[in-house]
Structures are given as structure tokens and as C-alpha cells.
Amino acid sequence: IIVAEAILESLGIEPTIAMNGLEAVECVKEHPDYDLVLMDIQMPEMDGMEATRQIREILKITNLPIVALTANVMTEEVEKYEKIGMNGHLGKPYDSEQFKAMIERMTGNTKKNA
Description:
Layout: H1 2-10, H2 21-30, E1 37-40, H3 48-58, E2 66-70, H4 75-83, E3 88-91, H5 96-107
Parallel strand pairs: 1-2, 2-3
Helix pairs in contact: 2-3
């Protein structure tokens, strides 16, 4: 989280940080107008895959870009992320240029609400 947060802040983005999947779902429920969700796959309480499923299926929020943050970037894993409704992935450790490019691609530019 610290590296991702630092990259976002360097772009002038003030991120909302959820410490687990349950908090992530609640944040999106309260603020469905986020420009982007960067979803860590491995979190306590509820993992990022289940949190994404709930955002897509229970909250019915389908137009919000969700990007997986994960060390698991094997083809089979990436296919799982896409199948549950994630729009992309960033592998750990993060490359700051790839990270910035993903944000720009998902939001259309470097918006302030991630």
C-alpha cells in the first residue's frame, strides 16, 4: 500500500485507503463515483477478488474500473481477475511508469479521485 500510495500522491491524487476487502466494498458503496479502484488481491477479512465480485454483483457497479494489484501475474490468474470483472492488473513490485500509465489508461488522465 505504501508504494502505491506514494505513486498516487506523486501524481497529485489523494487516495482513499481501505485496509481490507470489506472496507473497500463499503468505500465504493458510499462513493460510487470513484474514478478508479486499485484492488489488492490479498487482503484480510475479504480478498480483492471477493470484494470485486461484491462491487460488480451486489452493488451492481459495472462501469467503475478496478485494477488488481498482485504478485500473481501468471496468465491463469490474470484470466481469473478479468472473469470476475477486473479491468487490468499491476504486478508487484510496481514499476512507477507502468503504474502511472495504467492510471492514465483507466481514467483517461491522472484524475484526483482514486
